[in-house]
Design a protein that fits this description.
Blueprint: H1 3-14, E1 17-19, E2 31-33, H2 35-54, E3 59-62, H3 71-75, H4 78-81, E4 83-88, E5 95-97, H5 104-112, E6 135-138, E7 142-144, E8 154-156, H6 162-167, H7 169-176, E9 182-191, E10 206-216, H8 221-238, E11 246-250, E12 262-270, E13 274-285, H9 287-296, E14 302-304, E15 309-311, E16 314-321, H10 322-333, E17 334-339, E18 342-347, E19 358-362, H11 370-380, E20 386-388, H12 394-404, E21 408-412, H13 414-419, E22 421-426, E23 432-436, H14 440-447
Parallel strand pairs: 3-9, 19-20, 19-21
Antiparallel strand pairs: 1-2, 4-5, 4-6, 7-8, 9-10, 10-16, 11-12, 12-13, 13-16, 14-15, 17-18, 21-22, 22-23
Bound molecules: adenosine-5'-triphosphate.
Length: about 450
Amino acid sequence: MDLNEKIVSLAKRRGFVFPSSEIYGGAGSTWDFGPLGVELKNNVKRAWWRAMVQLREDVVGLDAAILMHPRVWEASGHVENFIDPLVDCRECKHRFRIDDLPGGERLIDAWRAGDVDVSSLGCPVCGKKTLTVPRRFNLMFKTFVGPMEDTASVAWLRPETAQGIYVDFENVQQATRRRIPFGIAQIGKAFRNEITPGNFLYRSLEFEQMEMQYFVHPGEGAAKFEEWRAERMRWYTAYGIPEGKLRFREHAPNELAHYAKRAVDIEFDYPFGGFKELEGIHDRGDWDLRRHSEYSGKDLSYFDDLTQEKFIPNVVETSGGADRGTFAFLLAAYDEEPDKDGTRVVLRLHPALAPYKVAVLPLSKNEKLAPLAREVWAAVRPHFMSTFDEAQSIGRRYRRQDEIGTPLCVTVDFDSLEDKQVTIRERDSMAQVRVPIAELAERIREKLPIG
Ligand code: ATP
């Protein structure tokens, strides 16, 4: 099994991630987060919110609606530009994005210039020269509001959360009396009708984004772009992804999205095909607020009363996927080491991300130990996300907690009944210390970094 298969299997077996609608054969490229997965993903989102909102003087939060006025997606350029060019093979019926064909980048350039020709190319699957002329396919999911399915009632499921931030820019700025520069952060669902979804959580149809839009004076965009890309890279390493598994990749001018002046991806070394996008940092210039001013008729320029200057704020965006990020944290944390029973599997998750911080384990399943062990668990529960396990040998139970990344186990043994002390065992070092039950919450807290 390669690393990807190991993670997919562990995720299913231990309750991190299940295929959606599995009893019906699966819904295809949509995923459910199980009891451990919801904890992990919530922790990833919480760590992001902490870094991007709580610890910042200059960023505030927002939670905008998924359904927005349909004109939003015209202004944003998504109706016109959020398009994949597709070809079908008439022979074997496979479908491809033209950038997945050999020479894809050149084909995309030619397609943009309006003269792409794929007739001389063989189908990547059957090899026959039977590819159709490229067709335009919009990645947004379309739906209808109200009882009529007509053009007047079209609504789109948002393909990114950013637009909610732009259209609320003035509301937020006035309500919080912010001066530029400042940022608005948001976490929420986004939907894309991806043609080639796959690779587990990497590309799905429904996912969560963690996005922050930083509004700056037009002269400040380039400098803030540098600051934010460094800051975002720092965040991933602070939460445990080794530097060697991450890199920056600057977009070439011909790859830039319709809104971007400059774009750098933070890429993670995924076990399928190597480095791939984890998060994008974009210098969007004044595209967004200028377009929304034009399309809505509401002037979204900003007046700086100190310099008496009026301008349309420029935007530096950081846009990461909560699911793609959660997947990267899982992959980076997975470790195996030899031990006396064969192999110890350890998820070396940062404690702030680990689903459970603490597992309380009676040394053995015994009616004398059970009441005290449950009492200890009850004392731990209000302070830390925790679990309790009394089935099977203590060694097996330590391994089970290692495999889901629980940083600390608390063991209640027969001495505990007398001395009112328990043992804390650390996941990574397997070191054990004995502590009084009365001090347990405090001692656990000392061992878990905040964040
Ligand atoms: P890709 O090139 O991989 O399709 P993108 O450039 O379209 O990604 P953005 O539009 O910049 O991605 O979206 C920002 C982030 O949202 C991505 O870095 C990724 O983490 C996440 N994301 C985008 N599409 C998906 C998807 N289909 N499934 C899961 N996460 C996604």
